[in-house]
Specification:
By secondary structure, the protein is mostly beta strands. The chain contains eleven helices and 49 strands. GO terms for molecular function: RNA binding. InterPro entries: NA-bd_OB-fold, Rrp5, Rrp5_S1, S1_domain. It holds the Pfam family S1.
Length: about 950
């Protein structure tokens, strides 16, 4: 069964669709179109292909036809069945044949590919192919995209069974069926029809649509007053497969622009004073105001039998308060609820969420980079791993298990009392103390005497701390990791000196001091041991040739984050891994918690993600480490022009990539300096993965001094020798491709060039397709005709690029040296204006064709001039005649043989302007001939 639906939500792996009958269906990501499925399979099998975005092929709020594939009923009969749908044209249009098509027929097709002159689309009809030209597509479409289209030319065996289509906007209006003799199978969901009402039977109306019986729900019209024999317009929802009745929607349908405001209410809004109207099919229907859609409540979801009985509603039909739970776009109905749990439920709407709000939520799922949480019905969130604590946790499940309840923050300092226990995460650890952070950025300090000697703690570990002291004014929180049962309260010993003589007081004080020194002796020995260990570590760091033990804490695209002895942070940059082969990923073989032996080269400060209130530091210290010594690349290496280097990709952009040369130096590699094959350059953005090893040569080094610091801008290349020489073919990056400016390209080695319109192709033909192809390909081959400094004159003709003998050209190439007066040649329209045409008729040669223009009403010459401008859009070839070889402001006077009788020649107009003839018409603003 095929029926019309509205896309209400786009998720990562499926679409949610509102269907007639207050049913919600799902469209899996593999049931969009055949082309989209192939793109998915290619992205999973090939590493350099990105996953296509589902929101780029469908529009939220648009209506499409869907085919029901499966209906699954739950064990609980109260719940609605699950409906699996498909919007693939091969499934939706499977019943159509070539004979089913008719002019202006509305079809829903999928884009297969983008060609030179238009888009190839899949109609889903056997042995029939569709084509949408660029002029009828309203922009470039995406492969796999589902679009609305109407038939403009029927397919025929002579044309290869190709149907020509024109795109129809999702905003409408859709074409209306005007042929009353079409077959029932040709009436598809979404088509516009006219019908006459034959019977009104609330809440339905029966109609006659062409020669078929039809039915519509009056609630889609907001229960407007209708009568028999009234002509109405509607949209086909579906055709019943057994009774062959056409079901229509007589009201407005949602569109992408009106989707957000289609209903007056939103989900979980409160509705007051709704009035009961009648029962229908286990539903209670309520009116929600004049012009507003109807609301309904399922009988099984009523709060009590006596509360909403038929007798009670007859006496008082007004319900004071209800809550919106769902919006049904295809039925124009609002689902309500009167349950106390739903009405009293605390709901947070997305537009009410503000930065800094704290919510209590449930953990839904743990993933590698964070965890998903559910805040309330209709609102969920995601907590990144970097926001779980100031320090990176080793595993998200260490914080909370899935489906358990968590709080966005613990109590504030003013609400903390000594003796309370809270869970926090270790931020930093030294020999004297540890800093612990809680979920609301409250931090506390644990001194070494409050840390159990038999326990080992590391940065990122979740610990339970007991509050010892809390000073809210000074924002200080003193914690302990010891349990209360193991705490030994030290009693302060104070000498009683009042009853002792002076000599005995001195003896007592002396004995107390001796006892205190004896008690501190083992502590002093421990301090000496710790100082000796610290000195050994310092000696190791000062001598880079010695190896230190390290453990990998985490890995990313550019470095290994390691923990050295004593809990100190360090990193092994990708440039310090060692000797690697070109095209490999050096960091791919390392895993977290792997043990390493590294050489400490130095240290640097990195800005912390958050401000640590206890330590009052905005920077964290990291050790620069290397797996080999001497290191493969020194930290402060100087680079010179022509030096061979090994770099590692940091980030790949559209036209260039940034490359790590050392932990402190980044270089730029433009794709133009990567290869001379344009096909290879178009794939580089997907092939150059972060961390990939590349060999290159330093092209330029620019020294920049800024605020007493020195920086170096380094440009790399993989090409050998100079490539910008006359007579050679090079690859260029298209900057501009338009009839006004021709094709402007950026070339290797900082050069740029221009190919005029007459140098784009050998044959005389319109250039709109050629210019569009240049913009789409981005990288093209071009031939260097002339080189003057960093400016080049280019040609894209195949005869110059590949030495192919062209078809006999109509006119020879014109240059400044071969230009003669009264030469007739073919040029291309660069731009058109009400009084003149700008034409490119040779290499670097532009001219102006003056046209007739006057203020006389009904002038026949003006009409022919306007017709001429319509016949020659920019990029069209025209035949012109050179009137003079002397240019005025870079433009040569030209004339066209087909307009010799329409006005003055260009030469006379120039003479009139030079002599300031009072009879010459006033110039236009922006006219190239005006002074």
């Amino acid at each position: 069964m095929v029926l019309l639906g509205c896309v209400t939500e786009v998720r990562s792996s499926y679409l949610l669709v509102s269907l007639p009958g207050c049913v919600v269906g799902r469209v899996p990501i593999t049931n969009i179109s055949e082309t989209f499925t192939e793109m998915l399979l290619r992205s999973t099998s090939e590493e350099d292909v990105d996953m296509p975005d589902l929101s780029s092929v469908v529009e939220v709020g648009a209506t499409y036809p869907f085919k029901v594939l499966k209906v699954t009923f739950k064990d609980n009969s109260k719940r609605k069945p699950g409906v699996t749908l498909s919007m693939d044209p091969r499934a939706v249009n499977s019943e159509l044949r070539m004979q089913s098509l008719y002019p202006r027929m509305l079809l829903h097709v999928s884009v297969v590919s983008v060609e030179d002159h238009g888009h190839i689309v899949d109609l889903g009809i056997p042995s029939v192919q569709g084509f949408i030209p660029f002029s009828a597509s309203n922009g470039v479409l995406t492969p796999g995209q589902i679009v609305h289209a109407s038939v403009t030319r029927l397919p025929s065996p002579k044309d290869g069974n190709v149907a020509w289509l024109s795109r129809v906007s999702s905003e409408g209006p859709f074409p209306e069926i005007d042929d009353e003799n079409i077959a029932l199978t040709s009436i598809l969901p979404g088509a516009k029809v006219t019908a006459y009402i034959t019977e009104v039977k609330q809440p339905f109306v029966h109609l006659k649509c062409m020669s078929f019986s039809a039915c519509a729900n009056m609630m889609s019209m907001a229960m407007q007053n209708v009568s028999e024999a009234t002509k109405v317009a509607g949209t086909v929802l579906y055709v019943h497969p057994l009774s062959h009745v056409v079901y229509l929607h007589l009201g407005p349908l949602p569109t992408p622009s009106r989707f957000a405001k289609f209903f007056r209410h939103r989900n979980f809004d409160f509705v007051k004073n709704v009035k009961f109207e009648y029962f229908w099919h286990h539903r209670m229907l309520f009116s929600m105001g004049k012009g507003a859609p109807f609301g309904f409540i399922q009988k099984g979801n009523l709060p009590g039998r006596g509360f909403l009985s038929q007798d009670a509603l007859a006496q008082n039909p007004v319900i004071p308060k209800a809550r919106v739970t769902f919006l049904h776009y295809m039925d124009n109905l609002v689902q309500l609820s009167l349950a106390e749990s739903t009405i009293n439920m605390e709901v947070i709407k997305p537009d009410e969420v503000q930065v800094g709000d704290i919510y209590e939520c449930n953990v839904s799922l743990h993933v590698s980079n964070g965890m998903f949480v559910a805040i309330c019905p209709g609102l969920s969130g995601f907590v990144r791993h970097t926001h779980l604590s100031d320090a990176l946790a080793t595993s998200p499940p260490m914080f909370r298990w899935a489906h358990c309840q968590v709080q966005g923050a613990v109590c504030g300092r003013r609400q903390v009392h000594p003796g309370d226990s809270y869970k926090g995460v270790v931020v930093s650890r030294t020999d004297r103390h540890m800093v612990v952070i809680f979920f609301n950025a409250v931090k506390g300090i644990v001194y070494s005497e409050e840390i159990p000697e038999a326990s080992v703690y590391f940065v990122g570990q979740t610990v339970t701390c007991r509050v010892l002291e809390c000073n809210a004014q000074q924002e200080r929180l003193k914690l302990s990791l010891r349990s209360e049962s193991t705490v030994v309260r030290k009693q302060a010993v104070r000498p009683r000196t009042k009853s002792l003589p002076d000599n005995e007081q001195n003896i007592e004080v002396k004995s107390l001091v001796e006892d205190a020194l004896k008690a501190k002796k083992p502590l002093a020995e421990d301090v000496l041991k710790k100082e000796k260990l610290a000195s050994d570590e310092l000696e190791t760091e000062l001598d880079p040739s010695k190896k230190c033990k390290a453990t990998i804490q985490s890995t990313n695209r550019h470095q290994l984050n390691v923990v050295l002895r004593g809990g100190k942070r360090g990193r092994v940059h990708v440039t310090e891994i060692g000797v690697v082969e070109e095209g490999s990923l050096p960091l791919k073989g390392f895993k977290p918690f792997q043990a390493l032996r590294v050489h400490v080269l130095g240290s640097h400060l990195a800005k912390a993600r958050t401000f640590l209130e206890i330590s009052h530091r905005r920077f964290k210290e990291y050790r620069e480490c290397s797996l080999d010594y001497p290191p493969p690349v020194p930290l402060h290496m100087l680079y010179k022009k022509g030096m061979e280097v090994m770099g590692y990709v940091k980030e790949a952009n559209n036209t260039s990539c940034s490359v790590w040369l050392s932990p402190m130096q980044i270089a730029t590699l433009e794709y133009l300096h990567f290869s001379e094959n344009p096909k290879e350059l178009r794939k580089l953005k997907k092939q150059l993965k972060p961390g990939l090893a590349l060999k290159a040569r330093v092209l330029e080094v620019e020294k920049i001094k800024k605020e007493k610091q020195t920086y170096y801008n380094i440009t790399l290349t993989r090409l050998d020798g100079a490539t910008v020489q006359p007579g050679r073919n090079v690859v260029g990056l298209v900057q501009v491709a338009s009839p006004e400016k021709g094709v402007v390209l950026r070339l290797p080695h900082g050069c740029h060039g221009v190919a005029s319109l007459c140098d784009l192709r050998d044959e005389v033909a319109p250039l709109q397709g050629t210019l569009e192809r240049c913009r789409r390909l981005l990288y093209v081959h071009c031939h260097l005709v002339e080189v003057k400094g960093d400016f080049c004159t280019l040609s894209l003709k195949k005869s110059r690029l590949y030495g192919v003998t062209p078809k006999t050209p109509l006119y020879p190439e014109l240059t400044l040296s071969t230009l003669t007066r009264y030469t007739i040649t073919t040029g291309y329209v660069a731009s058109r204006h009400p009084r003149h045409l700008l034409v490119n008729f040779g290499r670097g040669l532009d001219g102006c064709v003056r046209l007739h223009s006057c203020d006389t009403r009904g002038c026949a010459a003006c009409k022919e001039t306007r017709a001429l401008l319509d016949r020659h859009p920019p990029g069209e070839p025209v035949e012109v005649k050179v009137e003079d070889v002397k240019a005025t402001k870079g433009l040569y006077p030209l004339s066209m043989p087909e307009i010799d009788g329409l006005g003055l020649s260009a030469l006379l107009i120039v003479l009139n302007m030079l002599s300031r003839d009072i009879y010459s018409p006033p110039p236009l603003i922006g006219d190239p001939w005006c002074d």
